[in-house]
Design a protein that fits this description.
4 strands; 4-stranded mixed β-sheet; about 140 residues; alpha/beta; 5 helices
Length: about 140
């Protein structure tokens, strides 16, 4: 188990916390960061919609929200909220397993917490390449 990580779920989907800890351990080794405090929350579409609206002023659901509480990109202190409903929609759309989509979203959130950005098209492409590389390398270990 990775220290300082808390995983919560109010979704109907059964979350395998051991696999998530394996993913985080892999990411820590691959991209060299430590975790001061990290919460990963698996929630329903309605809840992420409310959080997105309240904190970011966006009146819609999204697959992931990441909140970074530090400016130190090598010592994570943050929260990741993942909409399992949106992840399931993505999985169907891209014809991947739900668990792989959840891994991808966790990787995406971690990349945000260590300083990656996806607001500009160029940055989004760089982030997506890194996300795919990490996901593919992790899945090879399973």
């Amino acid at each position: 188990m990775v220290k300082n990580v808390h995983i919560f779920s109010n979704s109907n989907y059964k979350i395998d916390k051991i696999l998530i800890h394996k993913l985080l351990s892999f990411l820590k080794k691959e991209i060299k960061f430590s975790i001061n405090s990290l919460e990963i929350n698996f929630i329903e579409k309605e809840e992420i919609h409310l959080i997105n609206s309240k904190h970011l002023g966006h009146n819609y659901s999204t697959d992931i929200l990441t909140f970074n509480y530090t400016e130190n990109n090598k010592d994570i202190d943050g929260e990741i909220f993942i909409s399992v409903n949106d992840a399931l929609e993505n999985a169907k759309k891209f014809k991947v397993l739900l668990i792989n989509e959840l891994y991808r979203l966790i990787i995406h959130g971690i990349l945000h917490l260590i300083g990656f950005d996806d607001k500009e098209k160029k940055d989004k492409k760089i982030m997506k390449i890194q996300e795919n590389l990490l996901l593919n390398n992790f899945c090879k270990l399973l």
